[in-house]
Amino acid sequence: MPKSDIEIARAATMLPISEVGAKLKIPSDALLQYGPHKAKLSYEYIKKLARRPNGKLILVTAITPTPAGEGKTTTTVGLGDGLNQIGKKALICIREPSLGPCFGMKGGAAGGGFAQVVPMEDINLHFTGDFHAIGTAHNLLSAMVDNHIYWKHKPEIDSRRVSWRRVVDMNDRALRQVACSLGGIANGFPRESGFDITVASEIMAIFCLATDLKDLQRRIDNIVVGYTRDRKPIRARDIKASGAMTVLLKDALMPNLVQTLENNPAFIHGGPFANIAHGCNSVIATKTALKMADYVVTEAGFGADLGAEKFFDIKCRKASLKPAAVVIVATIRALKMHGGVARDALGKENVIAVRKGSSNLERHLKNLKKYGVPAVVAINRFITDTDKEVNAVKNMAKKLGVEVIRCNHWADGGKGTVTLAKHVIKLANSGKAKFKPLYPDNMPLLEKIETVARQIYGAKELVADAKVRQQLKEWEKAGYGKFPICIAKTQYSFSTDPNLKGAPTGHTVTLREVRLSAGAEFIVAITGEIMTMPGLPRVPAANAIQLNRQGDIQGLF
Fold first, then answer.
1. What is the mean pLDDT of the chain?
2. Catalytic site residue 274?
3. For this structure, is 23 an active site residue?
4. The CATH homologous superfamily of the domain defined by 130-248
5. Is 317 a known active-site residue?
6. Residues of the chain scoring pLDDT < 50
7. Domain 445-527 - what CATH class?
8. Which of 127, 195, 312, 410 is catalytic?
9. Class of the CATH-defined domain 5-128+252-326+401-424
10. Contacts made by residues 384-388, CB under 8 angstroms, sequence distance 24+
11. Which of 492, 495, 536, 556 could form a disulfide with 500 if both were Cys (CB 3.0 to 4.6 A apart)?
C-alpha cells in the first residue's frame, strides 16, 4: 500500500531553515525563525535586493477542475525541484492553505506524493500565524465599525448600510447570515450581518497585493466599510482603524521561507480566495523571489479561466510583473470527465472521450495566447494513462504549436519533471513572451467584464440589469473606473453552469451583483451563486484527522 502524503512528509529529512536560506545566499540574521524549519525574511534584507535583476517568472495553471483532480500545486513543487535537479537556481512561490478546506474537503494543500513542501503539518495548520493576523485585523475593523455606530461618531454610519462583515478561517455555513448586537441597548443597534471565510476577506486580497507596509496601510485606509444615510462612503481611515490594523499585520507581511522534500527553497505566503479575489500568493513574496532566483515558479487558483486570467489581469498588471512562460496542468482522467466519462469509469482507456474532453484544454491554450505568453502542457501522470490517450492530447496541442510533456513528479519528485523543466527553460529564454493584459485600464468597467466573458469564457452575451449598470457608472465617476475586474464564477465550467463541461460556447453570463474592493483596487463582478463562506461536506476531512498514540498528527492527506 503506498504511503500517504503525510507519511511521506514525515519521513523526509529536513535541513535547518538557515541552510535552506544559504542556498539563496540569505544571511542567517535576515531570517526570523519560527522553529528549526520555517522562517520569515526580514524587511531590511528585502530592501537590499532592490537593485538586483529579476529572474524569469513561470506560471503554473490548469484546465477546468474536475473531481478527478489535476495536481496544480504538486506540479508547481515538482517543477521547482526539477529545475533545481538540472542545476538551475529556482524558487517556488505558492499560497498558504486555509484551515477551512483542510478540515473540509482537502485535508491538506501543500503538494502531494514526493512533490511537497514541508513541514507539511505546520503549513496546513497554524504555520507562522499569518491567517490569524489577517482575520484579527479584519475583525478589529468590524468591531470598530460597530463601536463607531454605537457612540454615534462622525461621520455617522447608517447601520442599514454596513458592508463590512466578519471572518473566521473555517467552513461554517451557520455563520453565513447572522443577527448581531442583540440583547438590549447596551450591546448596540441590532442589524443583520454575516461571516466570510478569512481567505475571502478584502484584507487578504490587500495583503497579497501590497508592496510594503506603507502600501498596505494606504490600501487599508481606502477600504469602504459602509455608507452614511445620504449614501456617502465611509472608509477605514474615517474611523481611524488602519494604523492598528497595520500593526497587527506588521510581521505577517514578511514572506515565509520553507523547503521542498528535496530541500529546495519555497516561499509560501498569503492565500486569497480564487473566486471573490485573485487567487495568487503575495506580490511581496513573488517580487522578492525574482531578485533571489533565476527561475520563480508560482501558481494561480482554479483553472486558467479564473486563476490565470486574474494572475495576468490583476496581479501582473498591478505589480508590473512580466511572466516568461506558462505551464498548464492536465490529467488524462480529468480530460475524460470533460469528455463525458463517469468517475467510476476513468480507469478504462477511452481515446474518443479524451479527444472530446481536450476541447477544454484547447480553449485554455487559445486563451493563454491572447496574453502573449508561451505555454506548455504538463500531463500529470496516472498509471491508468495509455499512450494512445496521451497521443490524442499531443495531436491536439501540436496544431497550436504547443508541446505536451508527461510528468511523474508525484512518484519521482524532481526527477519526474526534468523534461518539463528543460522545456520551460527553453520557453522562458526564447524571447517569445510579449505579455499584455486582456483589456486596457481605461476601458469602461462593464466592457471589461464583457471582454472576459466573451474572450475567455466563450459567452455569447453578458446580461446585467439597470441597477448593476448604474452602480458601475457611479464607481467610474468616483474614480474607480481604471480598476481591473475580478469575476466570481463557478470554477467547474467556462460557463456559469457547473454542469457544462468541455468548452461550451454561446452561453449567457448573467451579472448578478458587483462589489467595490477599494483597498484591493479591483471590482468584484459576481455571476451565479458564489459562496464566500463554504460549508462542511457530509463527511468532512476533520473526521479522520487526529493524534495517534505517539502524539503524531494523522489524517492530513
1. 95
2. yes
3. no
4. Domain 2, N(10)-formyltetrahydrofolate synthetase (3.30.1510.10)
5. no
6. none
7. alpha beta
8. 410
9. alpha beta
10. 384/332, 384/333, 384/346, 384/347, 384/348, 385/332, 385/333, 386/332, 386/349, 386/351, 388/349, 388/351
11. 495
